[in-house]
Amino acid sequence: MTGDIEVVRHPRARRAKLSVDPTSGAIRLTLPPRASERRALEWAKSQRDWIARQRATLPTARPFVPGASIPFGDAVLTLEWMASAPRAGRIANETLIFGGPRDGFERRVERWLRAQAFSVLTGETTRIAERAGVSVARVSIGDPHGRWGSCSSSGTIRYSWRLILAPHSVLQATVAHEVAHRVHMHHGPDFHALVGQISDSDPKIARAWLRRNGAALHWFGRSN
């Protein structure tokens, strides 16, 4: 990282490329292995107007504050803080209510969403793995920027907790995608055919939804 520009060398890069990550707003300068970093950075810093235009198109930060609305599967919930309510979140009339001190409200919302994501994704993974006739060693969640799920050769499947903010059909199709990797560790025709067989919804529609809307999910819980 140089200043606010992340420098990355890529073995297949043919020229310097400047990009703005839509999930984080990070500025990335990708270089060929032997390119001059100094000259490339001088060029990148001369592109301030272009960077500003790209950042202006980024999704709006959506902090977890009282009164904010958040997607939750196929629903939309309004966040509410009530000092007299229990600290653990509960849903009532399309409102997600947390008690306890106002300080830490944002952290409690994210912890609750992560717990819900783990529960739903574990359940869906178990159900779809049974349909596919495969086993899954472990399910875990994280907050990666580059992918919605991953499946290791050891049978561990890891998901982004932010899938709980997507429509349930999108979450479910993503689970089917990762479970199918327990049979095919590639993205060939056999893999896609299996995903279609074990998914409750159209995987192509789910992928298209994530391409259009996925970046915005990474801005929930952020203040800037």
Task: Give a concise summary.
The chain contains six helices and ten strands, in the order E-E-E-H-H-E-E-E-E-H-E-E-E-H-H-H. With 224 residues, the chain is of the alpha/beta class. Helix 3 crosses helix 4 and helix 4 (168-180) crosses helix 6.
Relevant terms:
YgjP-like_metallopeptidase, 224 residues, alpha/beta, 2 domains, YgjP-like metallopeptidase domain-containing protein, UTP_pyrophosphatase-like, 10 strands, 38% helix, Zincin-like, 20% strand, 6 helices
Counted beta strands: 10
* H-E order: EEEHHEEEEHEEEHHH
Give the name of the CATH architecture of the largest domain: 2-Layer Sandwich
> By helix and strand content, what is the structural category?
alpha/beta
Q: Fraction of residues in helices?
A: 25-40%
What multimeric state do the chains show? single chain
According to CATH, the homologous superfamily of the largest domain is Metalloproteases ("zincins"), catalytic domain
Uncertain stretches: none
What would the average pLDDT be, to the nearest integer? Answer: 95
Q: Tell me about the biggest sheet?
A: 4 strands, mixed
The number of helical segments is: 6
Under CATH at level 1, the class of the largest domain stands as Alpha Beta
Shape: flat
Within the CATH hierarchy, at the fold level, what is the topology of the largest domain? Zincin-like
Give the count of structural domains. 2
Q: In percent terms, what proportion of residues is strand?
A: 15-25%
Gap from first CA to last CA: 20 Å
Gyration radius over CA: 20 Å
Which strand order spans the largest sheet, edge to edge or round the barrel? 4-5-7-6
